Amino acid sequence: MAEIALKSLAHSYLSNPESPGDYAIREMNHVWQQGGAYALLGPSGCGKSTLLNIISGLLEPSSGDVLFDGERVNALPPELRNIAQVFQFPVVYDTMTVYDNLAFPLRNVKTPEDRVHERVMEVADALELTSQLKRKAKNLTADEKQKVSMGRGLVRDDVSAILFDEPLTVIDPHLKWKLRRKLKEIHQRFEITMVYVTHDQLEASTFADKIAVMYEGQVVQFGTPRELFEAPNHTFVGYFIGSPGMNFLEVSLRDGHVVSGTTELAVGREFADALGEIRSTNVKLGIRPEFIEVHDAHVEGSMVADIIHAQDLGTYSILYLRLGDTTLKARIEEEQPTPSGKAYLRFPGKWIGLYVDEFRVEIAS
Ligand code: ADP
Ligand code: MG
Q1: pLDDT tens digits for 282-308?
Q2: For residue 23, which of 120, 147, 166, 220 sits 20 to 30 Å off, Cα-Cα?
Q3: Is 47 in the pocket of ligand 1 (CB under 6 A)?
């Protein structure tokens, strides 16, 4: 078991990369601590598989180092890195039985046969494959094959880490939920470092204690699901996490007042002061739909907005609002009265973020 550190890591599939866009991984530093349950979350094409393949040794990075417990492993081939990797599509030996497929990684490292038996039975039980052990892998359904594939990743308890690359893509939705629970149980039982790649925020937050959000070849935030929700470090995290995503309003100062377009925003002095320090022209105020206070009558410090549309989602509603020249979404709970026509909004200081060139900056209070 190991801590995995990535130091000044970058990778391009091109032989002569020039601009940042030529890199699948843009220079980054990151540490996966020993024993953690992590998710690597990001949209398709952001570099998740590239990063996993660099960790497991299938791919050599263009620059930077991969360290396991402080030791540089760049030159080590995958089989010497002691890492298990489970891919999106099943990797099984069709002509072997399920039992032999599961036993393979253990026999490969000369594990005594009684121990092989013990582990195969344990993993088969966890993945509900016990009744299938004698079947040839080629006769299995796609779901079952992927379970075998996962079992092969889980069967050795002496690996440094297990990397899962969107392993549940081919799995039936009913089973998905169950398998994710199983993985979590297995993690708790063996305390192996696990990195679980997904593009699904729900999957990430049900599996992981900490999530690395990846965007355009960079980890833009590494935090608990709650941290990602409450204080997104990058506008992308704001959009990607939460449903609907965070509201962002382009803001600037006019005569000492914070404005978005031509509309003056009622926000605290601290925000205006922080804005005054900024030289970039790419400046946004971010606030989540959940954190906008919605009133049906004027209250101290509120801004009046037009309600364009209210979407009733059962236990809550999403209001689509127009505030001056920008549109906003706000969430109100079912017990809250839904205003009609106009709504009076407040942006609590605690829940507004200032984003400069897409990254969040601290507001001194
Ligand atoms: P993800 O797993 O997040 O979907 P990938 O790591 O597969 O992303 O891909 C990151 C970027 O690198 C994408 O732009 C993709 O097109 C590119 N890429 C991936 N694999 C290769 C490859 N073998 N050769 C060239 N480009 C690749
Ligand atoms: Mg991928």
Answers
A1: 999 999 999 999 999 999 999 999 999
A2: 166
A3: yes
